[in-house]
Amino acid sequence: MTFISPRRYRPRLLHALLAMGAVMVAMPDTGHAADPAESFTPAQRQEIVAIMRNALRTDPTILSDAIAALRSNANAAQQNAARGALESHRTDLLTPAASDAILGNPQGHTTVVEFYDPRCPYCRKVLPDLDRLTREDKDLRIVEKVIPVLGQGSLITSQALVAAFVQGGQAAYFRMQAAVMGDSASPTVERMRTLATQSGLNATTLATDMNGAKVTAILQANMELARAIGLDGTPTFVFNARQIIPGAVGYDDLKKAIAQSR
Description:
Blueprint: H1 10-26, H2 42-58, H3 61-88, H4 90-94, E1 101-104, E2 110-116, H5 121-136, E3 140-146, H6 152-181, H7 189-198, H8 203-210, H9 213-228, E4 236-239, E5 243-246, H10 251-261
Parallel strand pairs: 2-3
Antiparallel strand pairs: 1-3, 2-4, 4-5
């Protein structure tokens, strides 16, 4: 609740509110909630509106305080919903799927799940920080879940990354990731074939697998989990299924969140 400091007009406003309560208390108990609009005469309603308008003109901070309170309540509700979603999907977030690429220690006791789009510039920017964190923290594993949310180019590159994993596991995935995430050319299937060849993969097999049932199922599962936890952008990080940080975040904030989640 946001408390508003008294002003010279506030006793009048308070009296009006007290009068409103008195009228409602005095009404007979019918077993049903009274409609406030029917509890006052037109003149009384007009007076209440006039008091509120005068209060807002005299002290506009009432409105800003009210907006702040609404935002605070909305944020609290959003956080509660996020905590509920994380708890509901705790197992999914703490148990990597066979198709998940993992940075760091695969048996690490601290699990960070990253949902990312390979075309997202912030996802590309954070890669060195993730590498640094796993080098410094030997009990950390970062589970990467690819989600195509930025259009057709994202879908093509996401399919190529998952197809690389299907073809050659973790090592093939990370070689293809380095090629894809560092590439500035337009993402086409032919471009993915070229990057696959440069990464030591079979380009023909990769291009076929990109539209195969296995790759499609993996991407669909990633998207469903992302939607279930209320993902609102990329990258999004989930720390030990306890905390979510959406959007661009740097090394220091990531390290702090990891420490808090332990």
